[in-house]
Design a protein that fits this description.
The chain is of the alpha/beta class. It contains 5 helices and 13 strands.
Length: 237
Amino acid sequence: MASVFITGDTHGYVDRSKLERENWPVQNCLTKNDYLIIAGDTGIRWDNSQTDGTLTKRDQDMIGWYSDKTFTTLFVDGNHDNHRALNSYPVTEWHGGKVHQLSSSVFHLMRGQMFTIEGQTFFTLGGAVSTDRYGREEGQSWWPEEMPSDAELEESIANLKRINMTIDYVITHCCGTSLLPCLLSFHYDSDDLTCFFDQLEFNYKLSFKHWYFGHYHRDKTIDNKYTCLYNKIEQII
């Protein structure tokens, strides 16, 4: 039986040390049939492609680092990811949902998708607002595509309606507005996406076992139903 783990933001080289073997020795027993999900802001693709379409050395090294791991890496996008670079990959299907495949064992789980792993269903919807966007450069360190489009939100609702708004696990980068007071050590405003997550749960009556997200740089479980992850690596299956 495959194992599935999840963790929070890795931010390129900055916060990936938690995935080094000495910090997470469990991986010594994992295979490519096992999965680690990163809940956004991976920075795996950050630099823009060279003019000839090749990757920069930084992104080659980053993709290679994850590809060399014993496990398969899955991730939703956050706000600090190069969305245009991710969207340049062909869309393929994996375990029932749409993905961008960066290598043989690194997959971007696209927005509004559902995946089935070991009989458990996962709904994914990445993206978030960058509170620091005004200090970043558009197209270089910040992308407007950080927020889901109307089409992606509509696809999310349509896909969830097909399974009667019932899912095992929800994987996002940010959380619903109603959870913000439980989390924040510094100020975050609600926005269209955090309000949409509340609408899914309270208006559309989304039913789920557990909701995992990153973004807020904290490790905290709320009401045994929602978990914010940063440094912790938690096993789901």
